Amino acid sequence: MPGTAITGTSWLYPFKGLYYFITHPFLYPLLRARLLPAVLLSTFVLGSLFFWTYLPQTAVLALFQGPLAWVNGAFLVLGEGAAIVALLFEAFFVDETLVDVFDAVLINEGLQGLVATLRTIHSDGENAVKQLGKPTTSAVYSPFSFRQIVEFILFLPLNLIPVAGTPIFLILTGYRAGPLHHWRYFKFLGFTQKERISYIKRRKLSYTWFGTIALLLQLVPVLSMFFLLTTAAGSALWVVKLERATRPRDGDSQRAPAYTDDPV
Predict the structure, then answer these.
(1) CA 223, CA 201: separation in Å to the nearest integer?
(2) What parts of the chain have a pLDDT lower than 50?
């Protein structure tokens, strides 16, 4: 199947997105616009959770895990914090920014034709961000998933399992979160629900690893929202590879690619 070798390295793309974001300054304005509220929100949520819930949850974990409870308790609180911060930030601050990061990376890598299906592009802009016009339809990077929130809560008791519980929790959470990072790509392709489900099913392992690594990065205190933005860049880079491997689009070869990550 085309793209199998590419999707096999899907776990690398969150890291590639981090490198890409850092080495492409035209993306920085998208971060600066959200940096202060991101830091304040992350600090408040994590501080509150550690103050009020770390010791009680660690005490419960200690009944099952002994000394490991102190470590897994921290992962548990960080996971809860990442979920709360992501939910609040995506709902009120950042989803539009994630769309802009995703689209700007695609434009910079020569996929203007793909982006132009859902938003206006100003070709005279001095960089990819400046070329972004208004979306022609509702633009959503990752839709709110009530099911994902419920499953996250249901999976929390897995952390009670010694040693293996926390990794299992992260992988199962990544299993659900991974495909959501390509929601906008599916919109670009005009997928029906049936086509989207079929596409995801064929790449479920790849999306699971992508989602798991993305979640791990979001567990980093205070920087979780920064990594959310860089992960959007990584998901766009994955799209670039998929598109170039399957079907070149009109205008994609008009500019030399600025990004290479061989071998893939």
Answers:
(1) 31
(2) 1-7, 249-259, 262-264
Q: How many C-beta atoms surround the C-beta of residue 66 within 10 A?
A: 10
Question: What is the gyration radius of the CA atoms in the chain, in angstroms?
Answer: 19
Distance separating alpha carbons of residues 115 and 121, to the nearest angstrom: 8
Q: How many residues does the chain have?
A: 264
Structure tokens at 122: 């100003």
**Cβ neighbours of 215 (radius 10 Å):** 24
Q: Return the pLDDT at 31.
A: 83
Cα 120 off chain centre by: 24
Chain position carrying tokens 């495909």:
179
Written as six digits, the tokens of 130 are 């400046």
Annotate the chain with three-state secondary structure.
CCCHHHHCCHHHHHHHHHHHHHHCHHHHHHHHHHHHHHHHHHHHHHHHHHHHHHHHHHHHHHHHHHHHHHHHHHHHHHHHHHHHHHHHHHHHHHHHHHHHHHHHHHHHCCCHHHHCCCEEECCCCCCCCCCEEEECCCCCCCCCCHHHHHHHHHHHHHHHCCCCHHHHHHHHHHHHHHHHHHHHHHHHHCCCHHHHHHHHHHCHHHHHHHHHHHHHHHCCCCCHHHHHHHHHHHHHHHHHHHHHHHCCCCCCCCCCCCCCCCCC
- Residue 44 to residue 22: CA distance in whole angstroms: 26
